[in-house]
Amino acid sequence: MKTKVITIVILVLCICGACTICNATQTGSVYLESNKNNVEKDEEIEITVNLSGNETVAFNILLNFDDTKWEYISDIESANVENGNILYVWYDEAGGSNAKQGELVKFKFKAKENGLSTFNISGEFYNSSGQQIEADFKEMQVQIGKEDTTLELQSEEEKGGSNEANNSYLQSFRLDVEGISPEFDKNIHEYYITLPTKVKDLEVLAISENPKATINIAGNERLKNGSNTIKIEVISEDKSTNKVYNIYVTRTDNAEEANANLEILAIENTLLTPAFNINETNYNAEVGKNVEDLNVFAVPENENAKIEVTGGSNLKEGDNTVIITVTAENEYTVKEYKINVHKRNEKEQIEYQQEQEEQKEKLEEAYEIEKLSADEEKANSVQEGKEDKETEEKTENIIFTLIGTIISILVLGFTVYRIIKEKKWHE
Questions:
Q1: 39 three-state secondary structure
Q2: Rounded-to-integer distance, Cα 215 and Cα 159, Å
Q3: Fewest CB atoms less than 10 Å from the CB: which of 156, 246, 258, 306?
């Protein structure tokens, strides 16, 4: 096979040499694609060599791979394999009418050993004018077997501390991307995230409160465009209970069309706890015994999203669940906001009214105290003003008296001075 490949290489060079010699002004991109990014030992994959941005009528490529981790299993006549290198040559026997673009050739490999492996590509490409195509080559990596990730290493350091055999709660979970909402709470079982289409897999770190509980994670790999659901199931140590936490993933490059957030959420004549936040999906509220229906005010961030409210009518005494479902503009991304509305019974209503009366009395007392304090402050201010005025008047009188005394002394002194002077003159 080696002799045949060398002969073809010479033939290609002759064909290209017969053409007008030109500088490599044409450009293109040569990249590799794999049908799998993660494989197990003894599993097979296909590596495709692609050309974009130009067409080629003749080329030779050198594909480098780690032969300690991969076994080459293709049977391609024009390929020569030696020491982890595949030399492959092709030319258009029709003289250019069958120029290639896109997929050029596909090679098959079988995984031998676990680890991260890199495939490198290089070569020469010519167009129908005999010009060499200036190619940009891109490598590719494939993981064989399972490798401990950062999240998995963290999970070893964050084990739960509960020893209750029937405990099936999560202590925490994280993804290897940001943007999930709401913040984790072991009592919240629905979470949401929107991802670009370039993200195909999600790594999920899930830690149970009881480290001996069993955790099953499904749906986080090979995400499809559109709507996806990742399920985290926690089975208690004694197998008596299980809980499922769902992560609803939208995979799209148009985030605005996938926007299912609310901008405003409120209920007439009552307050939500906690205060509304677009990243918070679970709330509590309390209404009176005589309230039958709720007036729910919900406004989406994207005005083209649709809103449906269920559970807000014919309220029963005790807890009622009101669900506000937001369907995004793309019509498949859905987000739910839940409000636990407690309707007071007769006893609770009486206690509530008593509390309101007590609160009212306290407010009135506080108001009276504040008013009295204000009046006293005003009276004190008036008294202080009066005293200040009296003090000011006394001060003025003292000053006037002092000035008068000084003037009298000066006049008296001047008179004595004249008398003495006249007496001396007569003598």
A1: strand
A2: 13
A3: 156
| DSSP element (H, E) containing 234 | strand 226-235
* Distances, alpha carbon 364 to alpha carbons 359, 368, 370, in Å: 9, 6, 10
- Give me the half-sphere count of Cα atoms (radius 13 Å) on the Cβ side of residue 19: 18
Strand ranges across the sheet with 318-327? 282-287, 334-343, 318-327, 306-310
How far is residue 298's CA from residue 51's CA, in Å, rounded to a whole number? 51
Q: Are 90 and 104 in contact (CB under 8 A)?
A: yes
Contact status, residue 320 vs residue 343, Cβ threshold 8 Å: yes
Residue tagged 């084990």 (tokens)? 159
Q: Contact, 79 vs 87, CB < 8 A?
A: yes
Handedness of CA 193, 198, 199, 200 (dihedral sign): positive
Task: Convert the pLDDT of each residue in 16-73 to its tens digit.
Answer: 444 434 444 578 899 999 998 789 989 999 999 999 989 999 999 999 999 999 999 9
Residues 6+ apart with CB under 8 A from 408: none
Q: How far apart are CA 389 and CA 403, in angstroms?
A: 21
Burial 193-222 (b: 16+ CB within 10 A, else e): bbbeeeeeebebbbbbbbbebebebebbee
Strands 70-72, 226-235: parallel, antiparallel or unpaired by DSSP?
A: unpaired
Amino acid at 107: F
* Residue-level pLDDT at 382: 66
Domains of the chain: 2-144 (2.60.40.680), 150-251 (2.60.40.2340), 262-344 (2.60.40)
Q: What is the pLDDT of residues 313-362, one digit of tens each?
A: 999 999 999 999 999 999 999 999 999 999 999 999 999 899 888 888 88
Residue 282 pLDDT > 80: yes
Model confidence band, residue 424 (pLDDT cutoffs 50, 70, 90):
low
Q: Please name the helix (run of DSSP H) or strand (run of DSSP E) that holds residue 50, with its range, or none.
A: strand 44-56
Question: Nearest CA to 283 among 339, 355, 211?
Answer: 339
Structure confidence by residue, pLDDT tens digits, 147-200: 555 565 565 566 788 889 999 999 999 898 889 999 999 999 999 999 999 898
